[in-house]
Amino acid sequence: MNWEELKEECLHCERCGLCTTRTNVVFGDGVPTAEVLLVGEGPGQHEDEQGLPFVGRSGALLDSYLHAIDLDRKKNVFIANIVKCRPPKNRDPLPEERAACLPWLREQFRLLRPKIVVCLGRIAAQQIIRSDYSVTKEHGQFVEKDGVLFMGTFHPPALLRNPNNKPVAFEDFAALREKIREICTSTY
Ligand code: URA
After folding, report:
1. Which of 54, 57, 90, 153 to mutate to test the pocket of ligand 1 (most atoms within 8 A of CB)?
2. Residue 37 needs a FRET pair 20 to 30 A away by CA distance; which of 64, 94, 117, 187 works?
3. Which tens digits make up the pLDDT trace of 15-36?
């Protein structure tokens, strides 16, 4: 299956109950050849309405961090989520919803073959890096698994609620820029 076929199939997904309440499936946004993959938790209201990840205020914050390190969803990064449909009232996605949705992310990962994966927030980091991952304690550290580097950082919506963490979150993105310079060949 190629990228377009995967997207087409994903946009019609009915693998869990979230398909009955969603407006749009949020497949992701960015370039399918990116070396850097960012993964959030799941769509919120604006994402559900627009069919795109990280739009609205938290998206603007994320884009500002990305632009500060010369990343841009139109040029050199791909942004996806653990679940592709909005959980009602923005509750955490249920284990069965994550389990049903994860094969889509796995296929995206398989086709992208990213060199670096950045987990945005606890839900993504605990799903992808380690089930007891602590964003507060471990953010900004790169861990290698099967030749791919994984890093967790703060969830942009959490930074809007707690702006005190913005400077440390920004440092994580600065560390990401250094890591990209070190190991990526086509990002910059
Ligand atoms: N928007 C997304 O697409 N994902 C999140 O995790 C938060 C906001």
Report:
1. 54
2. 94
3. 999 999 999 999 999 999 999 9
Buried b (16+ CB within 10 A) or exposed e, 126-143: bbbbeeebebeebbbebe
- Do residues 173 and 65 lie in contact, with contact meaning Cβ atoms separated by under 8 Å? yes
Nearest atom (ligand 1) to Cα of 46: 1
Distance between CA atoms of 39 and 81, rounded to whole angstroms?
5
Q: Which helix (H) or strand (E) holds 118?
A: strand 116-120
Q: Which CATH number fits domain 3-183: 3.40.50.300, 3.40.190.10, 3.40.470.10, 3.40.50.1440?
A: 3.40.470.10
